[in-house]
Write a structure and sequence with these properties.
This protein has a six-stranded antiparallel barrel. The chain has a four-stranded parallel sheet with strand order 2-1-7-8, sandwiched between helices. It folds into eight domains: 124 residues, Rossmann fold (3-Layer(aba) Sandwich), CATH 3.40.50.140; 107 residues, Topoisomerase I, domain 2; 120 residues, Topoisomerase I, domain 3; 114 residues, Topoisomerase I, domain 4 (Orthogonal Bundle); 59 residues, no CATH class; 56 residues, no CATH class; 55 residues, no CATH class; 58 residues, no CATH class. Strand 19 and strand 20 form a beta hairpin. Helices cover 36% and strands 23% of the residues. The chain contains 25 helices and 34 strands. It is α+β, with helices and mostly antiparallel strands and 858 residues long. This is DNA topoisomerase 1.
Length: 858
């Protein structure tokens, strides 16, 4: 056994480090934290704020193995990451493995290279308790906020909701942006563009320097331009430079990977983690833009070799954020001689990091900017053409121009032809187009990260999990927003003739941007109204500053917690006792048929329209909102239309036909088959003829494309992508197959693989009881209905093997299930009678279409 035991967080990291250390070292992984706050219950003594840490069930075997390895080692080297989270992992290991100070050493490095690892071994330290306490403060404070605020939401909004210090603030940003867009009143103005010709016939595109507020003013300017001789009034050429951006921090990497590669924040961090663990880049959680002298020299050598010495301009950058901490260097390649790596997906991100770092050490780009003023003294305004020429590309040779989502696509500066002052120009065409002001854009993932960083909310390690959490909680989503249409006026002057036309313009549409859900909006409003301080951007940033002070040893973490909780808990009690229930209720009007109020509100199962009051003798009726509808904006007329769904049409091929809206959007139901109505098509507009067209399209799509053992095979596209169907088996078709041109051998291969997988799926199955023991990705498990249960260990604390599970009795399996869920086999009450009564009442109120809604929405 090796004298030295090195413990890191991840097996990939362990594998890389093991290569650099000799036979006297054994490297093992802790697979992240080995202990944490308990999953059930708060796990914090609120009198002293002492956390009750426990080793999770899935880590007990690992801890036993690590303890055995510790006993055989003379020295234990704790080599977790160099940030607060890594320091806490090292501390938990030391506590749980009972490591004495004389038998443990803490080592840190920001890159996994042989030089960095050996240098860290030469310069060990002990665990930094200040960093540990900063992590404990964050963990405990966030646990308290979540555990005390969430039950308030269950009582005041609906069950199953959650709140969090950072996630709730992120949702608030998205909600406020959506309200800003909703309340925005666009203002129209007329922008003029001209295309002019010089004496050699070369075109010059120019814009009028001032817009006109009114159509009449723009038209008058065009009339005046008819007889105007345009001249070059001024030509100004001035030199300029463009400088490279700093090397990547966590947030700038996330933003740039989003805009250049289309990666979401979670994918970016997953790939960056792999690049770090495999030794290609430095530590990827950092808010520093600093580079080591070694890195600056390495970049200089590579730039000189690849581009020439004139492109090299070594420099260092200063981190603007006063709170930048933890890692001491920007994200950069560990070896500039490695220009690419084998894995295609990893290489795309690596190239981004590599090129950005090189660019940061390269010379400025030199440009020559030209501005040409075109007009005549008779005209109230003049045109201006702008262009630029790159004299020396500098850093652009490695990285190109960085554009943000706010950049105006219309402002692309072009190369201009040579002209002289006083030169006469002919106009080819002058266009006056009505343009409307636009509201602020919805947040992309990159934009949200930028805003959180700007406000000082969260830290590099928190952005990805925060963005994932608010989507998992269904507070926000990235649904497509259908555009609206409006009329715009366009006037064109060409050949002394003004042509006026009215065009249609689409606006307000969006894709892949964050939009709050109805639930997210109601929850955010409730929290903002009742917990102003917690949802305050400044407060959240101040909490981060307190964590920084704890990390620096300038503040005691339990004193901070005491101060926070003394104000927070009384507020929780006050809101729980006095705050009104939040449903986002909007009274839309009075139903003309029943005389009852029509409400848009959040119910137990989400957003809905309700006719009648909950305390009326006759129960209210409900309707679900369609995709794209929102309780904050739906109109009275749109709400009443929803009660026309579902409606019946005539039979087709002897099977009933109806049109409705379900969980996945509007559909035509033909017999027992649900067929989605195309996106953007109003289900209320679907008549008999259109329904039959949709059904026929489905028939064609479902026609067999091949056979397998004499049975037909069909194909389609579902919520999880393209698939083929054989008998009752659905087989997903991976991207490596050409879905549109599947060959018989492709189909045989896919179905064979699926059948083989299904054959190996069940270890035991009791169909009548809906219980089975199945092979899963992480080993065997029990499935009961749709619920999944763990298989307990044997009496000797070892796992069951697959062969042993074949002999387990049904009674034993039932016992395993009830041990995990005592109510699993409890007899459920049948709600049929209640549903029938509700349906009957609903039918009298809103006729047949609304009959199904009460049952679905109660």
């Amino acid at each position: 056994m090796s004298k030295n035991l090195v413990i890191v967080e991840s097996p990939a990291k362990a594998k890389t480090i093991q290569k650099y250390l000799g036979k006297d070292f054994e490297v093992k992984s802790s697979f992240g934290h080995i202990r944490d706050l308990p999953k059930k219950g708060m796990g914090i003594d609120l009198a002293t704020f002492s956390p009750d840490y426990e080793v999770s069930a899935d880590k007990k075997k690992l801890v036993t193995e690590l303890k055995a390895a510790v006993k055989k080692a003379e020295m234990v080297w704790l080599a977790s990451d160099e940030d607060r989270e890594g320091e806490a992992i090292a501390w938990h290991l030391a506590e749980e493995l009972k490591l004495k100070p004389e038998n443990r050493k803490r080592i840190v490095f920001h890159e996994i290279t042989k030089n960095a690892i050996l240098k860290s071994i030469e310069n060990p330290r002990d665990i930094d308790q200040n960093l540990v306490n900063a992590q404990q403060a964050r963990r405990v404070l966030d646990r308290i906020v979540g555990f005390e605020m969430s039950p308030v939401l269950w009582k005041k909004v609906k069950p199953g909701l959650s709140a969090g210090r950072v996630q709730s603030v992120a949702v608030r940003l998205i909600v406020e942006r959506e309200k800003e867009i909703r309340e925005f009143t666009p203002k129209a103005s007329f922008k003029l563009d001209g295309i002019f010709l010089n004496k050699t016939g070369q075109e010059i595109s120019a814009k009028l320097k001032k817009d006109f507020d009114k159509e009449e003013e723009a038209e008058k300017f065009l009339e005046l331009s008819k007889t105007t001789e345009f001249k070059v009034l001024n030509v100004e050429t001035r030199p300029g430079t463009r400088s490279a951006s700093a090397p990547f921090t966590t947030s700038t990497l996330q933003q740039e990977a989003s805009s250049r590669l289309g990666y979401n924040v979670t994918n970016t961090m997953r790939l960056a983690q792999r690049l770090y663990e495999e030794g290609y880049i430095t530590y990827m959680r950092t808010d520093s833009v600093n580079l080591s002298q070694e890195a600056i020299e390495g970049a200089k050598r590579q730039i000189t070799s690849e581009y020439g010495s004139e492109y090299s301009s070594p420099r260092n950058y200063t981190t603007k954020s006063a709170s930048a901490q933890e890692a001491h260097e920007a994200i950069r390649p560990t070896d500039f001689a490695v220009t690419s790596i084998g894995d295609a997906q990893l290489n795309r991100l690596y190239q981004l990091i590599y090129r950005r770092t090189l660019a940061s050490q390269m010379a400025n780009a030199k440009i020559e900017k030209t501005v040409i003023e075109i007009g005549n003294a008779k005209l109230p305004q003049h045109f201006e053409a702008q262009g630029e020429v790159i004299i020396f590309d500098g850093f652009l040779k490695a990285y190109g121009i960085v554009k943000t989502e706010e950049d105006d696509e219309e402002n692309n500066e072009k190369l201009l032809p040579k002209v002289s002052v006083g030169e006469a120009l002919d106009y080819k065409k002058i266009t006056a187009t009505e343009k409307f002001t636009r509201p602020s854009a919805r947040y992309t993932e990159a934009g949200l990260v930028r805003k959180l960083e700007e406000l000082g909310i969260g830290r590099p390690s928190t952005y990805a999990p925060t963005i994932q959490t608010i989507q998992n909680r269904e507070y926000v989503d990235k649904r497509e927003i259908e555009p609206h249409t409006r009329e715009i006026v366009k006037m064109s002057l060409a050949k002394d003739t003004i042509k006026k036309e009215v065009l249609e313009e689409k606006f307000g549409g969006d894709k892949n941007k964050f939009v709050p859900t109805d639930t997210g909006e109601v929850v955010s409003d409730f929290l903002t109204d009742n917990f102003k301080e917690i949802l305050d951007y400044g407060f959240t940033a101040r909490v981060e500053e307190s964590f920084d002070e704890i990390a620096n040893g300038d503040q005691k973490w339990k004193e901070m917690m005491t101060d926070f909780y003394s104000k927070f808990h009384p507020r929780i009690q006050d809101v729980e006792e006095h705050a009104e229930r939040a449903t986002g209720d909007r009274l839309l009007g009075v139903d003309p048929k029943t005389g009852k109020n029509v409400h848009a509100r959040i119910g137990r199962f989400g957003a809905m329209i309700q006719i009648g009051e909950t305390d009326d003798e006759e129960k209210p009726v409900f309707a679900s909102l369609m995709a794209g509808q929102n309780i904050a904006t739906i109109t009275f007329e749109e709400a009443l239309e929803l009660f026309k769904l579902p409606f019946d049409l005539n039979e087709v091929d002897g099977q009933s036909v109806s049109v409705g809206v379900g969980r996945f959007g509007p559909y035509v139901k033909w017999g027992e088959t649900y067929i989605s109505i195309p996106k953007g098509e109003d289900p209320l507009s679907v008549d008999q003829k259109r329904a039959e067209e949709i059904i026929n399209e489905k028939k064609i799509a479902d026609a067999p494309i091949a056979t397998y053992k004499g049975e037909p095979v069909t194909k389609g596209t579902g919520r999880f992508g393209p698939f083929i169907k054989y008998q009752s088996i659905f087989v997903n078709v991976p991207k490596r197959y050409d879905f549109e041109n599947l060959s018989q051998s492709d189909i045989n291969e896919l179905i064979d693989a699926k059948l083989e997988k299904e054959a190996n799926r069940y270890i035991q199955q009791w169909e009548k009881e809906k219980i089975s023991i199945e092979n899963g990705r992480w080993g065997p498990f029990i499935k009961f209905g749709k619920a999944m249960f763990k298989i307990p260990k044997k009496a000797d604390d070892t796992k069951y093997e697959g062969e042993e599970l074949k002999d387990i009795s049904l009674d034993e399996v039932k016992k395993w299930i009830t041990d995990q869920d005592p109510k699993a086999f409890a007899e459920k009450k049948k709600p049929a009678a209640k549903k029938a009564a509700t349906t009957k009442k609903a039918t009298t109120t809103a006729k047949k279409p609304a009959a199904k809604k009460p049952a679905a929405k109660k």
